[in-house]
Amino acid sequence: MKTLGLDMGSKRIGLAISDEDGVFAFPSGKLDRVGRKQDLATLVHLIAERGISRAVIGVPLHMNGRPGKGAEAARSFARDLAETSGIAVDTLDERLTTVEAERALNSVGRRGKRQKDVIDSVAAAIILNTYLELQRNQKASDAETDVSAKDREGHNS
Hints:
There is one protein chain. This protein has helices at residues 36-50, 71-85, 97-107, 113-116, 119-155, and strands at residues 2-8, 12-18, 25-32, 52-59, 88-93. The protein is of the alpha/beta class. The protein has a 5-stranded mixed β-sheet, with helices on both faces. α1 crosses α2 and α3 packs across α5 (119-155). The protein is globular. It starts with a strand and ends with a helix. 29% of the residues are buried.
């Protein structure tokens, strides 16, 4: 099941797409913002074209956990994307993803304009990778809980 990761900005939306197994997140470019309706239409087309089943949108929060500038806009966009695309759209705390993306790009020698061209997509990949990891951890935790419940049932027989 492919998942789309989005890093929302006022001028651009960074894009990342997972592999079919939901293990790896790949930076997949950026969408220059034109207007909400057109942005949604472009994303719906991308979702259909790439066979994407789910999306996650980063929500900017302050370090203390309070919603940051753009948090409600990101949540609203997530609701609209879910409605127009018909896929599940989750949100995820994106604190420090841009900083992490800048560090990653600096470490491989991408600075200045070369960094600016890909930073949104790399930030989207970090959001998506974090989301995929949380999903895997949740599945593992659920499986562990199921095993523990079955163990208790077996001992009560």
